[in-house]
C-alpha cells in the first residue's frame, strides 16, 4: 500500500505518492550486489555473460514496463534521455559494426541503463537508500583483506577460487603492475582502477551519508577502511576522487554556518584555473593531468590520447566510429581511451554524447536543487551522493568504466532519483496593490488597527482581551481633540 502524502513546511511531501513504506531492500538488489562480489562469467552461445548482466537483463523488462505505467512516480527527463541514449548506441553500432550491434550494444545498454533502472525503480525512500549504503559500505570494507593480500602477492583470491572450483571464467587483472612497492589490487573487478573507483564513491556515502545513522566512531573507522581500499587499487583516478571528496568535506566543515561557501569555492576554482592558464606555458588541463597521475609519463600519454581522440570525433561527428580502431600516431601503441566522456563521443558520436551528458547533468542538478529545503535525512543522503558523483564526474576525465564496475556506479546513480522526483517548494507570491507594488501580508495573530474612538470604547467595556487589543494605563486621546 502506498503511503499517503503529508505536506511538511516548505512544500515538500513527507512521502511521495507511489512510494512503498517498506524500508527493506528488494531481493533483486541483493542478488545484483552479490553478483558483483562473486564475479562469475559464462557463455550463452557466442555471448559471454556475467552474473551481474544476467540479473539486470531479467529485471530490465518488468522495471521498464512498471516505470512507463507510473508505478515509480513521474517519469524524469533523465529517464527519457538515457532511454534515447540506449537506442542511439544501437543506431551507431548498426552504422559502424552491424555484426556486433546486438551483442556489444546490448551489453552496454544492460551495464548502464539496466543498473540505472534498478536503482531508479527499487530505491524509493531515504530509508531504502540508507539500507543500500550500509550494504555497500560493509561489502567494501570486507574486501580490504583481499586487497591487501593481492597488493602483496598479486593473487586475486575470489576470481581464482571461482576458476579453480567451478571451472567457470572470472575476472582477474593479472598485469603484475607495481606502484609504490605494491601490486595493484582489483579484488573482484576486471581492472584495479574499477575497484578503486567503486571504493572511492562509497567513501562519501559512508562518511556523510551515514552521519546520524550509525555511531561516529564506527562511521569514521569504516571511512578509514574504505580509504585503505582505495589506496591498494593504486589508481590515480580513484585517489583523485578520494582527495576531492575529503577536500569538499573539509571545506564544508570549516564554513559550516556560512551561506555562500559553495559560491566562494566555485570562485576559487575558477581563479585557480585562470592563474594556472596565465602562469604556465601549458594548458590548465595538461597541468591537471600531469599532477593528477602517479606516473608523469602516463599523464603525458593521456594528453596525447585526448588530442588524437578529439580529431577522430571531429572526423566522425554523427555516428562516431563504433567499435572500430581510432586513428592515431604510429608511436601510440595502445588504443585505450581513459576518458569516459570522450569515449562516449568517439564511439557513438556527438548526439550520443549529448544524450548521455544531458541525462547525467539533469539528474545531478535535479538532486542539487531539492536538498536545501528537504528534511534532514534526505538532505544528508543527497549531499553525500552529490559529493561522490561530483568527484566521479571529475575522475571520468581520467578513467573509463565498463562491465560490473559501470553497473555498480550507475546503480548508485539511479538510487538517488527519488530525491529528484520531489516537488520543488512553491515560492510565496506577495499580494500587490492596485499600483502594482508589493504589499506584505498581515502577520498571523497580529492585532488589527482600531480607530481611537473604538480603542477608548473597548477600554471602558473591558472587551480588549477577546479583540486582541493591548491595554494601556494611559488615556487615549482621539485625534483632533
TrEMBL record:
Residues 429-438 have a biased composition (Polar residues). It comes from the Bacteria. The chain crosses the membrane at residues 24-44, 50-69, 76-95, 131-152, 192-210, 217-242, 262-280, 340-363, 383-413. The keyword Ligase applies. Residues 429-481 are annotated as: Disordered. GO terms for molecular function: ligase activity. It is found in: Membrane. InterPro entries: O-antigen_ligase-rel_domated, WaaL-like. This is O-antigen ligase. It comes from Aliiruegeria haliotis.
